[in-house]
Design goal:
This protein has about 300 residues and is an alpha+beta fold. It contains five helices and twelve strands. The strands form three sheets. The protein has an eight-stranded antiparallel sheet. A two-stranded antiparallel sheet has the order 4-5. Strands 10-11 form a two-stranded antiparallel ribbon. Bound molecules: uric acid. The site of uric acid has 7 residues, from α5.
Length: about 300
């Protein structure tokens, strides 16, 4: 309590950019580099700093920033960003009595190993597009929440998509179709089931590998087999099948939230009766992301009844 009002506060540092290189020999797979933007936010008992000039309990946000680099230095073995977030969260909640909880968010800049003459390069990287991120919440008790996600995963297919049978009333202009382009930029967040630091898997389980696996399942389900694809009756149905496949394939993912904006490719018809300049024949489109459809869903495993 602070006077007659209830006060809650938290503080931390955002956009702490850190890059870590692990210099493995070429025979061991070559160098590894990560570039992360880290945000740390702690719940800390330092209310007097809000209500008076007493800063004695504040862990300075500058010190929080410095810690990110210290911990980066201390990671002599390759770590996933989920593991790194847990390391940071445990550090703040165990070192400082006044810190009861830490939230660590990391977004990765996706440096990917280049392939030269068909061979993975030992120390050359290019930046990819879609981004891996994580949010980890650690409490002093050791209780844990780990969410990971992907952003900016742009997918499109030129056929095997339609939309028909939806509400017909005076507002409807869109005809039924079984032939259209479907394009989206997938954002997905999924939760791991580890609820305490003691449940964390020791190596071979690798969060980074799981991210790659999820990405693969999402795209394979979206596209279907390379030669024939798979028909999508709606973004809703495709989104559901993508989420379901992730939960079916990975028992260590307990829920997944997927957002798939419908980025429309509008048929182009230009002209007049006298001058039919461009008549649409599933060939020329006007791509637009404004406005776009917004479609999202969360799929979870039913709570186990203990
Ligand atoms: O897959 C779709 N779902 C919709 O809800 C919708 N609405 C719309 O206009 N086009 C589409 N397409």
């Amino acid at each position: 309590m602070a006077g007659k009002f209830e006060l809650q506060g938290r503080h931390g540092k955002s956009r702490v950019r850190v890059s870590r290189v692990w210099r493995r020999p070429a025979a061991a797979g070559g160098h590894v580099i990560v570039e992360w933007s880290v945000a740390v936010s702690v719940v800390s008992d330092c209310l007097p700093s809000y209500t008076s000039s007493d800063n004695s309990a504040i862990v300075a946000t500058d010190s929080i920033k410095n810690t990110v680099y210290v911990k980066g230095k201390e990671c002599t073995e390759v770590v996933s960003m989920e593991e790194f977030a847990v390391i940071l969260g445990r550090h703040f909640t165990s070192l400082y009595p006044q810190v009861s909880e830490a939230t660590v968010t990391i977004v990765e800049r996706p440096w990917e190993r280049v392939v030269v003459d068909g061979k993975p390069h030992s120390h050359g990287f290019k930046v990819g597009v879609e981004k891996h991120s994580t949010e980890v919440i650690v409490k002093k008790s050791g209780s844990l929440l780990i969410n990971s996600g992907i952003q900016g995963y742009s997918l499109l297919k030129t056929t095997q998509s339609g939309f028909e049978g939806f509400v017909t009333d005076r507002y409807r202009l869109l005809p039924d179709t079984r032939e259209r382009i479907v394009a989206t930029e997938v954002t997905a967040w999924w939760r791991y089931p580890f609820e305490h630091v003691s449940q964390l898997p020791s190596k071979p389980f690798c969060f980074t590998q799981r991210y790659q696996d999820v990405k693969k399942v999402l795209s394979e389900t979206f596209f279907g087999p390379p030669d024939v694809g798979v028909y999508s009756p709606s973004v809703q149905n495709t989104l559901y099948l993508m989420a379901k496949e992730v939960l079916m394939r990975f028992p260590d993912i307990s829920s997944i939230q997927v957002r798939m904006p419908n980025l429309h490719f509008l048929p182009v018809n230009l002209g007049s009766k006298e001058n039919p300049l461009v008549k649409f024949a599933d060939d020329v489109y006007l791509p637009t992301d404004e406005p776009h459809g917004t479609i999202e869903a969360t799929l979870s495993r039913p709570m186990s009844k203990l």
